[in-house]
Amino acid sequence: MTGDAGGAAIRVLLADDQELIRHALAALLGLEPGLEVVAQAADGRAAVDRALAHRPDVAVVDLDMPALDGLAVSAELARSLPSCAVVILTGYGRPPLLKRALDAGAKAFLPKGSPGGTLADVIRRVHAGGRYVDPALAADALTMPECPLTPRELEVLRLAEVDTPVAVIARRTHLSNGTVRNYLAAIVAKLGVTGRSEAFRLAREQGWL
User: Fold this and answer.
1) pTM score, whole prediction
2) How far is Cα 98 from Cα 91, in angstroms, rounded to an integer?
3) Cα 38 to Cα 29, 64, 133, 168, distances in angstroms
4) What span, in angstroms and rounded, lies between the C-alpha atoms of 127 and 74?
5) 41 neighbors 73 (Cβ within 8 angstroms)
6) Mean pLDDT for the chain?
7) Max Cα separation, the chain?
8) Residues facing 85 on adjacent strands
9) Where in the chain do CATH 1.10.10.10 domains reside?
10) Which of the four CATH numbers 3.40.1550.10, 3.40.50.1820, 3.40.50.2300, 1.20.1250.20 does domain 4-141 have?
11) Is the domain 151-206 a CATH 1.20.210.10 member?
């Protein structure tokens, strides 16, 4: 759709690995004055490639995508296409993810369940140089406790995602097997869970990983 009063439309890229959601968003934004969806992508790597090819003004990207997630896409576009403002959509808006998204260069962060009109308004806002954070997420971010794990513990836990053997984790982190076991025991104790699989799931849900 062309811009208002003869002005150029805001060019938008949509990236989401769920085709139905992507097409629904494209249809909704197509009804909005002054917005034009110029490209779509089903994964993060394609999102970056198509952004560089089409040079949109705003990229709306899902947080959880194959190849590159929304945070990686945001960081890459901040480096290679700084004129493109990134809006991150997520189905699970944990406050730690909000901070990581903003640190990665995203200009807006909002839940997938937001009304279509809200997304359109956010696109216009970031294109004008502003930022937007979902108010409920912002309020939660102010009251949510900090991650109790150290950076090293998070590194070990990230590698332990799929029951990776202790010896493999030790080799990748340049630690001894005993040190890795101590880290895993400390992680489980700090999080109050029964094992490392549950610890990984909890940390992922909280946005610490």
Assistant:
1) 0.68
2) 12
3) 11, 22, 25, 44
4) 15
5) no
6) 87
7) 68
8) 58
9) 151-206
10) 3.40.50.2300
11) no
